[in-house]
Amino acid sequence: MSDASVQAESAPPEQMAPALAVRDLEFSYAGKRVLESVSLAIEAGEFAVLLGPNGAGKTTLFSLITRLHDRRRGEIRIGGYDVRRQAVQAHARIGVVFQQPTLDLDLSVAQNLAYHGALHGMGPREARRQAELQLERVGLSDQHRTRVRRLSGGQRRRVEIARGLMHSPRLLLLDEPTVGLDIASRRELVEHAHRLCAEEGVAVLWATHLIDEARPGDRVLVLHRGRLLADERAEALADRLGVANLGDAFDLLTGGLTGGEEAPCA
Amino acid sequence: MRLMPWLHCLLGVVGRELLRFLHQRSRFIAALVRPLVWLFVFATGFRMALGVAMTEPYQTYILYEVYIVPGLVGMIQLFNGMQSSLSMVYDREMGSMRVLLVSPFPRWYLLICKLLASTLVSVVQVYVFLAIAWWYGIQAPPMGYLWILPALLLTGFMVGALGLLLSSFIRQLENFAGVMNFVIFPMFFLSSALYPLWRIREGSYLVYQIAALNPFTQAVEMIRFALYERANLEAILISTAVTLVLLALAILGYNPSRGMMARKGGGGD
């Protein structure tokens, strides 16, 4: 389908290019619009919360960015690389934490990470070095040899984050990463992801339906029924809509009052 | 492009599959018990009812359990191939398929790595089975055990690619039973695994025709001949062709803009 992406063939991608750039993304499934003219850009070191109720199209957006499928219209670039035409370069720059757990429970943490390293073309030695580095960062250095089955839910998520960062991506996608975690682990995970942004310059796109996972100062993207209804700082959004906090803003946008029909698109 | 990263990827995928195999001892035992029950129970009973006259590639009159061994080898590979390919669809394995597919390597390469990995697991199972059969007294010429290796690789790819293809086009398979009934059993029973084609022909011409067309028959004959240090050229050619076609279709099925991934829409919300 749409090979009609307008952009002239790859300007040399540089550090200047946004970590993630999505333009006019459209996706339909079984005759139904799942995503409608979605455009967004996330810069290096930015933490963006993709907020949307279940069924808003968050996972679909992630699947398109990671090119699990790509029957769509529009353009997606990672660090300047088109995910369709420069798939190899683009993929090498994405780290993903999927909604459902994807670690092998019967294998050790180290074995899981080694597998990921191999999938990114790393030799065993380099993979081990990266794995140790990232595990230390998430505070799990001592769990190297532990079987994943014996880790807690929060620890598993942290291993998945460590895994997603092994190949030094420019963009880290997290799809509802706190599902099933207790409050303490949730908070810890949110904080950890923020630290990554600040320290590593990784751009983070964090999808959730839980409003309290957006912190003051975070950029908030509200996705509802496949349309991006807002894209600004949490406080600015509340101010603009004349409500007290993000929670109210979210309710207002996603149909607390109207169907979200007339909501301003960012 | 540099070659080493490709090799690392291949070794990583194969290594993981073998590790998982070692950890799933129950699966290994099930994979062995199935053909052994056929060999020890079914074949022993049938030995009385059913002698097998001299047929190619056998040099002498043979016992039924000698005849059935290559068919059971094929059965091991058939089960293994279906199981590992289809497990990607259900029981939480969908997640690990995603992990595989977001790798920067091209998809066709990742799928081939995956197929090679599951094929090697089935080869290990086959050799353990053959060792037990040897101990039981069913012994082929020693070099035959080397000869069958390429035949096993090809068969593994064939059934694995078939499984991949099914996994990409069938949207929902409630469980393994559906595949057993509609794919594995027909392929196995309507082949030369249990009876030589000429014998099937005596029974029913229709069944004979189906069995002759069944690619699994070709795979089994290829293994049978190889085990006796012979090359059944026709079987090799047909098996290779079928494998290539299935592989191409499976890769097409996993193409991001068509097949499973497009239709499944990524699941979730």
From TrEMBL, chain B:
GO molecular function terms attached to this record: ABC-type transporter activity
Localization terms from the record: Cell inner membrane; Membrane
Domain ABC transmembrane type-2: 26-257
Domain of life: Bacteria
Pfam families: ABC2_membrane (PF01061)
Entry GO terms, CC: ATP-binding cassette (ABC) transporter complex
Membrane association type: Multi-pass membrane protein
Family the entry assigns: Belongs to the ABC-2 integral membrane protein family.
Protein name (database record): Transport permease protein
Source species of the chain: Billgrantia montanilacus
